[in-house]
Amino acid sequence: MRVLVTGGLGFIGRAVARELVSAGHRVDVLSRGTGGVEPPAGADLVEGDVRDRDRIAAVVADRRYDGICHLAGLIRGRDSIADPLSYYDVNLGGTVNLLAAVKAAGPVGQRPVRVVFASTSIVYGSQRTGALSEDLPPAPENPYGASKVAAEQLIGYHAATGEISAVTLRCFNVAGAVDGYADTDPTRIIPNVLRAVRGELPHVSVNGDGSAVREFTHVLDVASAFRLALEATGAGATGAKATGAGAGAGVGAVYNVGTGRGVSVRELIATAERVTGRRVPVEHLPPKPEPHTLVSDPRRLMTEFGWVPTHSDLDEIIGSAWS
């Protein structure tokens, strides 16, 4: 299968491209530039910006992709509040341009182009607790989440017409590293814990007593979820297969990507100290009004695609990011 991975040099996108190459697919990675990141061996770099409608149309028309993993996007909730238009421009506008290009190019052979869209658990909002199911209606609280919901709906509408076959993957906390490329986002706890261990930060700030529970999935396991979704996505993965979360809004098949296994912040810090052999300095801040426990319910992905996370033990996640 010939596949385009948008955002293919990002933390998750590069891992997805690597997984697809390893599975024997012909892979192009679309990126605005390299930023010092090399494509995985066997993948070709295609320079382009999803906001550039003419460029995206030319790439899709010329290369005639069987499948597209769409990961290009802006991903920080707080930044989206300060600059909401940029988030809609990239996350929704970029998806509009990509789908327009696919429609203009037409299907490859007898099957519609397969699209796997990277969404986020942020679409569920912060006022829920426990294991989150795809049947919950979206409740985004910032332009980042809202732009992702809008893109999910747009993809669902196109899937319902039969122009594409589509799956949306709502990723929870993605961590770890592959080929030496780790998540460096300073808004996330694992990168900050390791920065504190290295002495790049004076301490890690923890809200409350550290008993809050979250889950973390290794980027290798997330990449395998994209591959399985791409390879399984066929004519049946249309709006007719919509979940309760979005059936009324035209959202196609939606799946959570997460382990469903929560760990407390205290456990995470203790694991980092054990794996690195170094102390993690911690500053405790007053607790924030946020859910105590927030994890995914990944049973749908596991049942329908046979996905099993094999790298998401916390020791392996932190060890790979540390090394």
From TrEMBL:
Q: Which GO terms describe its biological process?
A: galactose catabolic process via UDP-galactose, Leloir pathway
Which Gene3D superfamilies does the record cross-reference, listed alphabetically?
A: NAD(P)-binding Rossmann-like Domain, UDP-galactose 4-epimerase, domain 1
Q: In which pathway does it act?
A: Carbohydrate metabolism; galactose metabolism
Its protein name is: UDP-glucose 4-epimerase
- Family membership noted in the UniProt record: Belongs to the NAD(P)-dependent epimerase/dehydratase family.
Domain NAD-dependent epimerase/dehydratase stretches:
3-238
Task: State the organism's lineage.
Answer: Bacteria, Bacillati, Actinomycetota, Actinomycetes, Micromonosporales
> What InterPro entries does the record tag this protein with?
Epimerase_deHydtase, NAD(P)-bd_dom_sf
